[in-house]
Structure formats: C-alpha cells, structure tokens
Amino acid sequence: MVAGPASATGDYGPDTCLQGWVWRDAVPNDHVCVIPSVRSLHADYNRRATALHLPGSDQCRPHYTWRLVQPADHVCVDSRTRRQVLADNSQASARRNSLRITVSSERFGPSETCTPEYCTQTSDSGTYYVLTVRNINIGPAIVRLYRKNGTIKQSWSVSVPGAGRNPGGQLTLKTKVPYCPYAMDSYFRVYDSVSTRWSAPRSASTGCSFL
To answer: pLDDT per residue over 13-39, tens digit each?
Structure first.
C-alpha cells in the first residue's frame, strides 16, 4: 500500500487534506482525512488482520467487528474504532483543502470625516463584492481578480484566521470591487500558500470597475 501525504504541504489534488490532517489509507485509495494517530491505528490493524480473524474464517474474533471503510473491508477492529470510522467518514468533506468560495455583495454607504469646522464625505459608496473562503489552511493566502483573458486585475495578500471549532480557517474579504449587473467579465481565484493549491475560478461582473 502506498502511503498518502503526511502533511498538507503540497498539492495532492482534490483530496488534499487541511494542515494537521492526513489520508487514512486504511485501504487503497482511502483519502478520508484523519489525524495522524488514527492513520497509525488503522495501519496497526492492517498488520494484525489475520490474527484478529477466527482461524480459516472471514469472521472476527469475539469483541471485534468488520471495519467496513469500504463494503469489502473485512479487517477486524474493536467497536470504538468502527465508530471512529463512521465519524471520520461523516466529516470527510470538511477536512479537505477544497478552497470553497462563496461570492456575495454588500452595500456600503459614503463615509464621513469631520473636524470642528466642516465635514467631508467620500464617494466610495456602492455595492461591492465580498468573498468568503472555507476549507482553507490557516496562514498566508492570496486572492486574485483576473480578467477573462487571464491577466491579473487586482491582487490581495491576506492572512487567514482560524474557523473556530471547524477544521482549517475561514476568510471573509470585502474587496471594494464594484458589483455590476453586466456580463461576467472577470473571475476570482484564491491561492493557499500552505498547500500551494489554487481554488476553482468564481465568475464576477466588474464592468463598472476602474481597475
């Protein structure tokens, strides 16, 4: 069995794990992301597989049950490990470095600066794009806005904070890029510096932008 990546450093395709998680590798192509100690536990059960079966049988010894990472996975494990398999399977998508982008818009009003003598009002009111990025690693990242021909229109260097109790980080970026009700002429992409992964493009309409 070929071992999967030991960390999120590097791009391992759509199943890349967030930092701190690794492929379970309980069976070939098992890319559910788990903590390293769980991966080691399954490797140990694989080594002990024959000893935990009844002699000459596919059935498990007392107090053990099939692991069932996949339907044909009849490695015998204890009931706690079987419950762990179900829990890890249910959280599989949340632990991947999938760089999920949600594009929304937000209305900003004009800002005002006052002195004792007078007030001045800026003219940056309008509706602007807001990006929310989930399933991204904590740390440095880059957000870029591209024209349809692939040239860079604008770029932001950001630091992604943690996402609370959820794996990885979460970024909310108020871009100040005007939202326009025209044809899609641009797209956003996000670069995760930890895993070196790029997100899929998300279309945007910025026809009224003066960038």
So the answer is: 899 999 999 999 999 999 999 999 999
Question: In angstroms, how far is CA 20 from the centroid of its own chain?
Answer: 12
Distance CA 67, CA 200 (A): 35
Residue 180 phi, psi (nearest 5): -125, 140
SS3 107: strand
Strands 112-114 and 139-147: what pairing?
A: unpaired
**Identity of the amino acid at 185:** D
Residue ranges covered by each domain of the chain: 13-95, 100-204
Beta bridge partners of 121: 112
11 vs 97: CA distance, rounded Å: 9
Q: At what angle do helices 79-90 and 36-47 cross, to 10 degrees?
A: 130
Closest CA to 69 of 50, 89, 52, 51: 89
Mention the CATH class of domain 100-204: mainly beta
| Weakly modelled stretches of the chain, pLDDT under 70 | 1-9, 109-125, 208-211
